Amino acid sequence: MTAVATATLPERRTPPRPARSPSRRRRRLLGVLTVVIAAIWAFPVYWMVNSSLLPYNRIRNPDPTFFPLGGTVGAYGRVLEGNFLSSMRISMMVTLITVGAALLFAFLAALALSRFRFRGRKSFVVTVLIIQMIPAEGLFISQFKLLEGWKLLNSVLGLSLLYIAAVVPFTIWMLRGFVAGVPRDLEEAALVDGCSRTQAFFRITLPLLAPGLVASGVYAFLQAWNEFTLALVVMTRPENMTLPLWLRTFTDANRVSDWAGIMAGSVLIAVPVMVFFLLVQHRMASGLVSGAVKG
Amino acid sequence: MTRARMLGTALAATALLLAACGDEDGATEDTAEGTAEDTAGEAQAPEPAEIRLWLNGGDTPDSMREWLVDAFEEQNPGSTLAIEEQQWEGLVDRLTTSLGSTSETPDVVEVGNTQAPTFTTVGAFSDITDMLPDIGGDDLLPGFVEAGSVDGSTYAVPLYAGSAYVFYRTDLFEASELDVPTTMAEFVEAAVTLKEDNADVENFSGFWLPGQDWRDGAAFLWDAGGDFAVEENGEWVGALSRPESQEGLKLVQKLFTEASGAPRDGNESEPHVPFCAGEVAMMLRPGWVRWSIDNEEIGCPEMMENVGVFALPGSDGTPAPVLLGGSNVAISAASPNQELAKNLLELILSDDFQRQYAENGLTPAKLSLADGLGDDEYAAATVEAVSNAKLTPAAASWAVVEGSRVLEDLFVAIAGGGDVQQLAEAADAAITEQLR
Amino acid sequence: MTVSQRAAPPVRRRPLLPYVLLVPALAVLLAALGYPLFRQAVMSFQEYGLAQQFGQAPEWVGFDNYARLVTDSYLWTVLARSIAFCLTAAATTMALGTALAVLMTAVSRGPRLTLQIALLLAWAMPHLASLTVWQWLFESQYGVVNWLLTGVGFDQFTGHSWLLNPLSFFVVAGIVVVWMSVPFVAFAVYAGLSQVPAELYEAAALDGASGRQRFRMITVPLVKPVLLIVGLLQIIWDLKVFTQIFVLQDAGGITRDTNLIGTYIYRLGLGEGQFGLAAAASWFILLITVGLSLYYVRILIRDEEEL
């Protein structure tokens, strides 16, 4: 009963998190360690930002430049002149369609798989798993033919379809794990409390699933946002470039690549991902336990 | 893969080109121009359409693109020309899919001369044999026409060519009291001396040769009379372990160990970086490297006053055979606008357009226009380098050899001081297998 | 309150509903993958190259493509190498990712968000940029890593090539792969940990369970499905790893000693337009992957029974 009472009042902050409650000092030490790890992990990212502010001959130099002193934001201006906005628009559309459709479809499927027993369930689960294992490198040629037949080349919808299919197996598996992780007792308790099945779902199950949905959503977002090969063969017209294609226009394998431009473009590409993440990140811990977190 | 655009067939452009360069032949030019105009006038005006042209990388400058669009749209009223720049990386994937699609194919495409045979043999390009007389005929760079032809029909024609020559530091030559070498032996000696004289500079190269760079190493192999593979009784077999090739490869090893300070397993991109760091006395590079050195953001313009160039000398004093690079241009067989595409191809091979390649330091598609390169030392080096340039073996599946990177591996192993005979035998076995 | 209660088998009376729920996912998979997979299966029995891509009729060759693959002794070397690399990288990724996830639950909001943002930045960095930067960091002459090592007195690293020795090559490749994959694992496991309702812990605490016991009896079983899935996916992805190896091979090292399945198949088939061979290779890899993950699949299916 306690459980249901808490669940229906998600705004109530339940007391600390669980497993182990480290002493204050230990917690602070761990905090320092966490920040150090974060710094190490982000170093290549820092190097990208650093490089985006430097001229070519300081990026590519025997003496590394660790701080962009005397740097310039010229590269940002340079890359913004081209097709950035139109590519951003295309990438945005493709990504949002992919994330939305993949999460919805996968969620429905995950629900079916972990809440119902029906014939063909196991084979479906295994099939989806095996689809994950198929090496995708060789498929793009056939996928091109497929979209050509449907007149979906150079279209947002066509590329989105391929992306959805690419991430749906994964999201099904992922969400299935999360749906399975929602203790059924809670739902049952809610039913006993007089909630309808739908109510129980929206009040209990969905909030508990939020972390899983966010993790899968971030994954789907990044897959669609950064994919290169399929976009390369499907979106052949310059006005239909996605951001990764746009980024490649600053490379020149035979001559001199515009490194500052590539790095500046990469920074610009990473910004919307960060915005998306910051918008959803608090959901990642907001099942029934988010209150645990201090500060 | 990306740098694998050199190659085609072993037909040497050589003597022909030299002869043509010497010709002061105004008449040929006039005829060519006249023909182009005639055809444009005669042709029944095809249905106006948007023509898409794919050009790769930065070899064709913006001014030339603008010129081409203006000229095409003027000659073909109602039609438009869209030039879409492609990157070399991923190009083959994109061509493989797009060229087969009627709705999405570009109309005219540029391909690397190594890639041309891949697509000509499979029917991806339109047969343009009957156009040849109008667009230059025998005046076109023969090696490239050969690379674009199958069974007597031509599907792709040259767009431009380029070969590497030696960039060197005049100040370091002076300090070591060296003259510009005129034979291969002098060259090697100079390279070793320069390295010895500048031993205090870290990573210093008398001659800069990164381990993976078999494309430039090829010059030494060929100069010694060797080759990567030869045809025997209709079968291609690896030839790296033969005596002549061995002599060439041993010279390469000497250069690696005694003259080069480049990474033993590095590639040849970004040569201007060590050059501007003052670590290079000589390097064998394509002409555009001049512009990256002479660029404030990329290179070190202040060093330009100490930069000189010469064509790599061969053992007999004539230019050594360096690898010939460049591009072909072709019409997509799936294009619904064949007539307009042909008009565009004529324009691309017109003297007016091709002359602009020469002005930009690339060897134009026509032998007769080579003197348009100018008469400074860069032009002289370009002409000389191309005069004896050579293509990789003409075997049908040579692309497999390049794709497997067996040659990169071989050269890295040689750079590491391995046994040249043993390494070459292993490489030969692999190459023979791949060319079967 | 014990966790095993959740395994009580549900009884459902609406047999149609689950099928309806599966329709959208099935439809999109069938639409986007059905035909391409079928075509790939057909192609694997054909001599299918560029010429066929441009319209020539393909020739049936039976199992020739497969035979060519299986009889190539180098393939088996590459395969063994790939499996070793895959298992090492996947294990490292899982260990690090799980450790970071647990760490996130143990620290306050500031450090946690810092780490999350750092991980996400690494994950979000376009591959072109991240692979370029890693290549620069490990360059032999101008790399920051060697510059730092030399700076603190390790002179033997002046001009040291990290890619020339195959083992060292794979260490670098492993670092790059792990760096890229840990964020996903950390986020997924952290999400799994946050999903555990606090009430379970409270109830357990009331029952007198110690912290360690609660972790073992509540956290582990509830996070297990996520760990299993993420672990399996890591194995699948690390076996297919391609771009990182391809890019590093271009930068240095000896290709023949550093090929993994992905690059080998690419160079063998796709690079030269031998699509039939590449298709056969794809199916072949699929078979190997299934075999390799059989243990995992068994556990998953067994869990399936329990649900």
From TrEMBL, chain A:
The keyword Ligase is annotated on this UniProt entry: no
A GO biological process held by the record: transmembrane transport
Entry GO terms, CC: plasma membrane
Major site of localization recorded for this protein: membrane
UniProt topology in membrane: Multi-pass membrane protein
Gene3D superfamilies, per the entry: MetI-like (1.10.3720.10)
Compartment list: Cell membrane
Keywords noted in UniProt: Cell membrane, Membrane, Transmembrane, Transmembrane helix, Transport
Keyword Transmembrane helix among UniProt keywords: yes
ABC transmembrane type-1 domain residues: 88-280
Entry's family note: Belongs to the binding-protein-dependent transport system permease family.
Entry protein name: Carbohydrate ABC transporter permease
Source species of the chain: Phytoactinopolyspora alkaliphila
Automatic annotation (TrEMBL), chain C:
Entry annotated with the keyword DNA-binding: no
Membrane topology: Multi-pass membrane protein
PROSITE patterns to which the protein is assigned, alphabetical: ABC_TM1
Cellular component terms (Gene Ontology): plasma membrane
Transmembrane segments: 16-38, 82-105, 117-137, 167-193, 214-237, 275-297
Pfam hit, one: BPD_transp_1
Secretion signal, residue range per the UniProt entry: none
Gene Ontology annotations of biological process type: transmembrane transport
Keyword annotations: Cell membrane, Membrane, Transmembrane, Transmembrane helix, Transport
Main localization (coarse): membrane
Domain ABC transmembrane type-1, first and last residues per copy: 79-296
Highest taxon of source: Bacteria
Family: Belongs to the binding-protein-dependent transport system permease family.
Name assigned to this protein: Sugar ABC transporter permease
